[in-house]
Design brief:
- There is one protein chain.
- By secondary structure, the chain is mainly alpha-helical.
- It has a single domain (7-170), classed as Alpha-catenin/vinculin-like (Four Helix Bundle (Hemerythrin (Met), subunit A)).
- The protein has 5 helices and 2 strands.
- It has helices at 7-52, 60-68, 74-91, 97-130, 140-170; strands spanning 56-57, 133-134.
- It has a two-stranded antiparallel sheet.
- Helix 1 (7-52) runs antiparallel to helix 3 (74-91), helix 1 (7-52) packs antiparallel against helix 5 and helix 4 (97-130) packs antiparallel against helix 5.
């Protein structure tokens, strides 16, 4: 006695399996987008706070306070590094190569510009420890220009990742 398989049932099974796999990949990419947006939001808040100040005179206590928050986005950044490490395992073979490469590129850019933003932030802290005044009318734009540009790129890359997740969901 042979086993009979209904071809429609098999097709339905395969399509459902493909849909569930795609949904898992989209959820994974949305998790990346959530952390990317969180990372950009933290840096945006830092820049907004610095830009709102008219003039800041820095004491030793204030420098120590800033140094305590040297890496205000560590949880987001750590997760994004892990997402980047496991991206091929999570989405490899489940998406067309162009989508996989696009996600990898956006995430790589995000990580790269976060590192640049952090370096600029550390330079600003170093300037604080050398100079007692920071962000007055004369030096505000020079001190914040690079950080503002890096944060803008972080926000754009985070938005790209969110759009990629939504695009892949529609495929």
């Amino acid at each position: 006695m042979g086993i009979s398989i209904n071809p429609l049932s098999l097709l339905e099974f395969l399509l459902n399996r493909r849909f569930k796999t795609k949904e898992k990949v989209v959820e994974y990419i949305e998790s990346i987008a959530d952390d990317a947006e969180g990372l950009a939001r933290v840096w945006g808040q830092i820049v907004d706070g610095l830009q709102r100040k008219d003039s800041v005179t820095v004491s030793d206590r204030q420098i120590r306070e800033l140094e305590k928050y040297k890496e205000p986005n560590a949880p987001y950044f750590s997760r994004l590094m892990e997402f980047y490490s496991y991206l091929s395992v999570a989405v490899g073979g489940k998406l067309e190569d162009r989508w996989h490469e696009n996600i990898a590129e956006c995430l790589g850019q995000l990580i790269y510009f976060r590192k640049l933003t952090f370096q600029e932030y550390l330079k600003a802290i170093d300037r604080l420890s050398v100079n007692s005044t920071f962000l007055d009318e004369d030096n505000r734009s020079a001190d914040l220009k690079d950080i503002v540009q890096s944060v803008s790129v972080l926000q754009k890359e985070a938005a790209k990742i969110r759009v990629l997740a939504k695009t892949i969901r529609t495929l």
